[in-house]
Structure formats: C-alpha cells, structure tokens
Design goal:
There is one protein chain. By secondary structure, the protein is α/β, with parallel strands linked by helices. The protein is built from 11 helices and 13 strands. The protein has a single domain, classed as Thiolase/Chalcone synthase (Peroxisomal Thiolase, Chain A, domain 1, 3-Layer(aba) Sandwich). Helix 3 crosses helix 4.
C-alpha cells in the first residue's frame, strides 16, 4: 500500500532577529517583557515590516520550499503538488501556492496548487491532505507542503501585544510516495474544529462582508483584531486528548511517540501538556525563543530544527499538533 514520507525539511525567516529590548524602540509601545520571556518563552523574532524589508508571504514560502527541496536532493521540476497553509496570504486571490509554483518551476506544469486556510493549523491540515493525496495517486511522486506566517504585516500601529507575539517565518517539507516496504511514512491524521468560535481573533476586514473603506480604516477596523479573549487553558485541555486519540487511531500508545511538536505560542503550556502526557521534555522541541510565534509556520519550523539537531532521527515516531483561531485543529503522526 502506498504512503507518503518526509524526505526534506526547510525554513526561512526574513532579516536580522529583533530582540525584545530592540522591539520596544521599534514599535514605540510597551509590553510585559517579563511575561513574554518567562511564560511564553519569546526572546526575539523576525519581522520584515519592522526591518523595512519588501518581503512577504510568498517570498518566505518560496525560500522555505527551496531549502526543503535542496535537502531532499530532488529537482523542483519533479514536484507535482504544492500546498501552502496560511491565514496571512499575500493576496486574497490568486493563492500563494501558485505563486510559489511559478517561481520554482517557471511556467505551466501538470502541477497541483492550492492554499489551505485553517488559521494556525494550516500546515498540519495541509500535511494530512497531501499525505492522503499521495497515497491515492500513483502519478504523485513528490509534494511540497509549506506553512507560512506574515501576521506582522497585519498588526496595526500601537498594538504592542501583536508586535510582541506574532512574527514572520515559513517552514516546509518535501513528501515522497513510497510503499509498505519502507518503514518510514505517514501513519494517521486527525482534524477537529469548532466554528462557533470564529469571532475571537482574526483578520475580518478585506473580505466580501467587510471590504476595506476609508471609513473602516479611520475607525481602526482593519488588520489583526482581537474581538474576544481566548480561553487561556484551551490548549492544555485540548492537546493531550488529541494526542491520545491520534495514537489510538494508529494502534499505538502515547509512550511510543519519540518526539511531539506543538504550535509554538506558549512554552509553559507545552511544558504542562508534556507533563500531562507523562512524556519527558526531551521529546519536544521549542523554537519560540528565537522566532516568536509564527502561526502555521511554527510547527514545520520546529520540525526542521528537531531534524537538523538530531532530536528526530530516522525511524522515530513523530507527532505534530497545531491549533488556531476559528477554531481549527490539525494533528499528524508519522515515522520519520
């Protein structure tokens, strides 16, 4: 039976890192630096807007995809599918994935391209889709899945919280079609949603219901908007159950998971979840200390670091869990 396996990972962030001490000066607003560092674990981030760089969503996604393709050792022309998971697209239309395809393949190809907007679960949702497409299509040998975030481009001036938390970045993987003789490969995925929570936080202006107008801009009703406070304990309650459901789906136990990665928004929450799962902290990787929160890019960026640093090795069972506004949840289980 055919399945998909990860054969390359990549990462991209724009410009020089911005430490918390410099951020104060750049945004001209104060934030709780102690809480940011001690609880959330964020010490620096990359932000193209604040660095004055003309780089955006598809630029980040293209560079991460190029890096993953290079590590996979394949020609970009061999890729038959590009999926970009993001809720901060460069354009409402056309989608980001087709722009990435055009840059990497240079023209018309029999290549599938589409974006997935599942907020911060965009990458994990896209990975689940791509793995299942590869398993069903014998002509689909290689796919590139990118998670990318450009939320700083939507943060309004004076929003200290938004500037302190959200950052730019992209992570990508290359998937290859293989068969059961290969020990590596995708084992299972799990998606979850609760659309009654659509009106907590998001980018509400610019779509068909709330087009951008001078009046809306004057009222500050654009960009990232926090309409309701998010439940502080949601992921603590959510992630352990998702993890247990996913391993059960694959006929495994939670202790069989060699490495587990989560949305990189709060280090203390990740530590609490690992404790609830009775897994040692050595079985997770956190990267928010150097990258801030990069939304749908955060999980593949953490995956890249774990692979590059030897924390994930060939044959390891790996789990990814991401959740975001809306709310969406996506989880993946695979053998690396």
């Amino acid at each position: 039976m055919a399945k998909a396996k990860i054969i390359g990972t990549g990462l991209y962030v724009p410009g020089a890192a911005i430490a918390n001490s410099e951020l104060w000066q750049l945004i001209g607003a104060e934030f709780d630096q102690g809480k940011l560092e001690e609880k959330l674990g964020i010490f620096r981030r990359h932000n193209a807007t604040l660095r004055g760089l003309k780089e955006f969503t598809t630029d980040f996604a293209t560079e991460a995809a190029k890096a993953a393709i290079a590590r996979a050792g394949i020609d970009p022309m061999q890729v038959s599918l590009f999926i970009v998971g993001t809720d901060t697209p460069q354009y409402l239309s056309p989608g980001s994935a087709v722009v990435v395809q055009g840059r990497l393949q240079g023209g018309q190809m029999l290549t599938g391209c589409f974006d997935v907007n599942a907020s911060c679960a965009g990458f994990t949702t896209s990975l689940d889709i791509a793995a299942k497409m590869i398993a069903c299509d014998a002509n689909l040998k290689y796919a590139v899945v990118v998670g990318v975030y450009n939320m700083p481009a939507f943060v309004r001036p004076g929003d200290a919280f938004g500037h302190a938390i959200f950052a730019d970045g992209a992570g990508a993987v290359v998937l290859q079609r293989t068969d059961d003789r290969d020990n590596s490969g995708y084992l299972a995925g799990q998606l979850m949603a609760d659309g009654t929570q659509w009106d907590f936080i998001g980018l509400y202006a610019g779509g068909s219901k709330f087009p951008i107008t001078h009046e809306r801009l004057d009222r500050g009703e654009y960009g990232l908007q926090n309409l309701k406070p998010l439940p502080g304990d949601r992921n603590v309650k959510l992630w352990p159950n998702v993890a247990k459901q996913l391993v059960a789906k694959a006929g495994l136990r939670i202790e069989d998971v060699d490495h587990i990665l989560f949305s990189q928004i709060n280090r203390s929450v990740i530590e609490e979840v690992m404790n609830l799962l009775a897994l040692p902290l050595q079985r997770t990787t956190t990267v928010m200390d150097r990258y801030g929160y990069t939304g749908s890019g955060s999980v593949p960026m953490a995956l890249h670091h774990a692979v590059e640093n030897g924390k994930i090795k060939e044959g390891d069972t790996v789990m990814l869990i991401a959740s975001g506004a809306g709310f969406f949840v996506g989880a993946n289980l695979f053998r690396y």
